[in-house]
């Protein structure tokens, strides 16, 4: 995901972000896990992450001069905007209108789709392209549901 973010930063003449480290990844992971369990996107979780962004960054042992956050949720499968047919929900078997199998996301496809969605949203795009950000941590969690699952993402930018 960092490579996708850095690609867009480079295209806009902005320096690449470095990894923010394990403790911030753990914080992002806890928040993604909470969102997956709660079934909602929220910058102020009430579960394992239990606090707002500034508190999560401080709890990770980082004293930032800047922090921002992007959240996302995607289905496990690469539906995109194309129409699809449910062949067998129990086996998570889907096909396109033309009969091609709809595959689950790969790491590369999910990173590309999430960052593309963020770049299409003014607030998320602002976070990706913010020159104050120097480091980045991203984590994901999975929730299984009647639609064969969703992926939940927390991305934290710090200076």
Provide structural commentary.
The protein is α+β, with helices and mostly antiparallel strands. The chain contains 5 helices and 6 strands; from the N terminus they run αβααβββααββ. The protein has helices at about 1-10, 20-40, 55-60, 105-120, 120-130, and strands spanning about 20, 65-75, 85-90, 95, 135-145, 150-159. Helices cover about 35% and strands about 25% of the residues.
Topology:
Blueprint: H1 2-11, E1 18-19, H2 22-38, H3 53-59, E2 67-75, E3 84-88, E4 93-96, H4 107-119, H5 122-128, E5 135-143, E6 150-158
Parallel strand pairs: 1-5
Antiparallel strand pairs: 2-6, 3-4, 5-6
Quick summary of this structure?
By secondary structure, the protein is of the alpha+beta class. The protein has helices at 2-11, 22-38, 53-59, 107-119, 122-128; strands at 18-19, 67-75, 84-88, 93-96, 135-143, 150-158. The strands form 2 sheets. A 4-stranded mixed beta sheet has the order 1-5-6-2, with helices on both faces.
Structural classification: alpha+beta
Distance between the termini: 18 Å
Could you tell me the number of beta strands?
A: 6
What string gives the helices and strands in order? HEHHEEEHHEE
Strand adjacency order, main sheet: 1-5-6-2
Helix content: 25-40%
Radius of gyration: 17 Å
User: Helix segment count?
Assistant: 5
Strand percentage lies at: 15-25%
Low-confidence stretches: none
């Amino acid at each position: 995901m960092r490579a996708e973010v850095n690609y867009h930063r480079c295209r806009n003449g902005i320096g690449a972000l470095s990894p923010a480290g394990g403790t911030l990844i753990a914080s992002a992971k806890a928040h993604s896990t909470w969102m997956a369990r709660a079934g909602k996107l929220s910058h102020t979780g009430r579960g394992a992450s239990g606090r707002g962004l500034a508190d999560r960054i401080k709890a990770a042992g980082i004293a930032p001069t800047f922090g921002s956050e992007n959240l996302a949720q995607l289905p496990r499968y690469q539906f995109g905007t194309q129409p699809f047919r449910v062949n067998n929900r129990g086996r998570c078997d889907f096909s396109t209108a033309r009969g091609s199998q709809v595959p689950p996301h790969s790491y590369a496809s999910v990173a590309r789709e999430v960052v593309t969605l963020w770049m299409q949203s003014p607030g998320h795009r602002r976070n990706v392209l913010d020159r104050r950000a120097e480091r980045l941590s991203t984590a994901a969690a999975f929730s299984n549901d009647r639609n064969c699952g969703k992926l939940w993402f927390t991305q934290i930018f710090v200076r």
